[in-house]
Design goal:
The structure is a single chain. By secondary structure, this protein is an alpha/beta fold. It has two domains: 155 residues, Rossmann fold, CATH 3.40.50; 232 residues, Dihydrodipicolinate Reductase, domain 2 (2-Layer Sandwich). The protein is built from 17 helices and 14 strands. The strands form two sheets. The protein has an eight-stranded mixed beta sheet. Strands 3-2-1-4-5-6 form a six-stranded parallel beta sheet, sandwiched between helices. Helix 13 packs across helix 14. It is globular, with a radius of gyration of 21 Å. The N terminus is likely disordered.
Amino acid sequence: MTLGSNPWSRRRFVQLGAASALAAGINPALEAAAAPTGNATMINVAFAKRNPRIAMIGVGGRGTSLLKNLLAADAQIVAVCDLVKEKAENAANLVEKDGQKRPDLYTSGPHDFENMLKRNDIDFAITATPWDWHAPVALFAMTHGKDVAIEVPGVVTLEDCWNIVNTSEKTRKHCIMLENCCYGYNETLVLRMTNQGRFGDLMYGEGAYRHDLRSELFSDKGEGLWRRDEHTKRNGNLYATHGLGPVANYMSINRGDRFGYIVSMSTPERGLDAYRKAHLQPNDPRMAEKYVCGDMNTSLIKTANGLTITVKHCVSLPNPYSRVNMIAGTNGIFEDYPPRIYFDGDKNEAYTSLDQYKEQYIHPLWAKMGEVAKKSGGHGGMDFLMLYRLLQCVREGLPPDMDVYDAAAWASVGPLSVSSIAKGSAPFDFPDFTRGAWKTRTASAIATMS
């Protein structure tokens, strides 16, 4: 949800996010909530089969991009909510231009999404708001009969994680994370290779979010209006899922293995201080902000089956973009940026190109819709394929590829890394959000699709 020249300031909006969490039964002072019993699992639960009527909450830069890809996938958009009326109007214009009826707009303050989601002609809600609002929106949507998709990095506290799981189970509504990187060309191809045993027994992997966001963090529009605040509140791995999600899929996390415990450490913070000193005026109020998040966070995860994962986060130093995207096993290794692969027995112990494996292992989604995806835009086509596949699952009455348990597990890296750092990089156990069901669960449909 975008913020602009309106009565709701960025800081007030973030404060209200915490208040909304409290109103929804989330206590930010607690690190975790008890896992109640008695609710049936949402594992392998199919969507109600229908062509979903979708409501959008937040149509700034990211929300508008999602909307364009939804329209390219022939989605029905019936309502739009944003703090900034101009942003909502722009979204409505896009829907009308697509040939649909103009959607109803909700722009009367940060809680107007609640009025929208009380309607009975909405099936699915998609939110692209600042992070603190993901849980309040998701909880309200599910308790009012809607399936919901939340943007990365999911939710921001362990109690948020438990709340989306428990509410999903109680209401029988899905809550999924829109982790687009799981639908990238290389990620889906390598997922098929790992699922077919090409790398042998998997041993370790690495994911990262290394992206120089300094100019964006200090922008006077878009994410610059709120995302920098996260660096004043928490020291940890703030944005883990772009790198972690694909590796978790390779390793069948929540499907035969699960995250066991995490150890996290951060460097000192220097990058944002240096950037603002070089680019801001001395009297700029942002010069008084105190940043607590270290420039490079490195988190180590040990799985229940003994595999290891490294997850890095760095957005405040000058470095080229990389998600690393590495997986290794007893038969070989793949590493991205640039993509390269090595198998046991290859000559000269040297990496070779991934190209020779593309014909055999290209994912069916890319084989069928890849050209359409590339034309639709959105990070090389992965955004379109993510939403195309989501709509396919709903329209055909299938379970989602990644579910609320994945959303909770992946999002929990954030708060657990903060706790680990605060305790001198002590290990912290992951909750078992599946309550033991990971031991007998089979692979996700995205891995086995033919």
